[in-house]
Amino acid sequence: MRQFVAIISLLFVSSVLNAQTSEASEPFPVDTVMSGGREVVIFSNNKWQYLEDMLFDGILNKELHEMITEDTSLQLKTYWDNNMCFSNQNNTTLMNMKDSIWICVTDSLHPNFAIPVPGVLTSSYKHRGGRWHHGVDLDLRTGDTIVAAFSGKVRYAKYNTHGYGNLVIVRHYNGLETYYAHMSKLLVTPNQYVVAGQTLGLGGATGHAYGAHLHFETRFYDASINPEEIFDFKNRTLKDCNLVMKAEDFRRNKGAIAFRQAKPNKTYASTGRYHRIRSGDSLWKISRMYGTTVSNLCRLNGISESTTLQVGKTLKVK
Ligand SMILES: [Zn+2]
User: Fold this and answer.
1) pLDDT at 224 over 50
2) Which end of the chain is less crowded, N or C, counting CB atoms within 10 A of the terminal residue's CB?
3) Complete domains list, the chain, with CATH
4) Predicted TM-score of the model (pTM)
5) Cα-to-centroid distance, 217 and ligand 1 (Å)
6) Least confident window among 8-12, 123-127, 142-146, 154-158
7) What is the phi-psi region of residue 223: left when phi exceeds 0, alpha when psi lies from -120 to 50, beta otherwise?
């Protein structure tokens, strides 16, 4: 309460100051206060913003970003732009990379996911009508709720004139972005944090759309990858909690032989690694696969050495 009063009184003081110096100029910071454990910057025009939002550079997976930008062979650029849909600046890099990038689709910090809309898949990630279809289409009726696939921060939420219609783009904590197009109504705003399953808008047929559907894309540093590598839309599940991306995943024409030759010689992996249990796996076998010990696996997963492993479940391995 004291912090709230402090903000109010500062707003009052700054508005008095503004009245005295009425010249129109760019708003500038006049003070900072703490509110709810977060630093708030107060501007000369009475507006305020959280300091962490002001300093936000768009990177939600700092560890992976450092790995892939420090390496001179793979310099991916990133940005945080509420008006630009995507750039093509990273495509060539990703299509030619010799290494692979391993991300956690879900991890212990962000364990949840949601299928954006429960409709059937009507068109896949493929060459279609003389151009590449960068996402999948999911059937819906106008007005159906569209939800966020994973938690993250809304980068873009407005009408797009290049065919997407009403479009929401959410950036996630693993570096992926998801695109939700042709909506009839937008229910989020740029820079808003959302959680997996949260409503983003209502389905529709705005932009270039023949009939109501959700055009859904998944992109990593702007380059599209097949959403079906991540989601099983039929069973409404995740394919795996890990995603290993290689050059060919970014190659739109998957028939290109040159890119099939590329053998990964290094894997960039973010923290928290998971293993999906397959038939025949044992704790000992898994510990050898990941260079760890059985006791470590037990500790990480809260299990004992005698726990029966269930095929299809995931184990944290690091
Ligand atoms: Zn589509």
Assistant:
1) yes
2) N
3) 2-54 (no CATH), 57-271 (2.70.70.10), 273-316 (3.10.350.10)
4) 0.72
5) 8
6) 8-12
7) beta
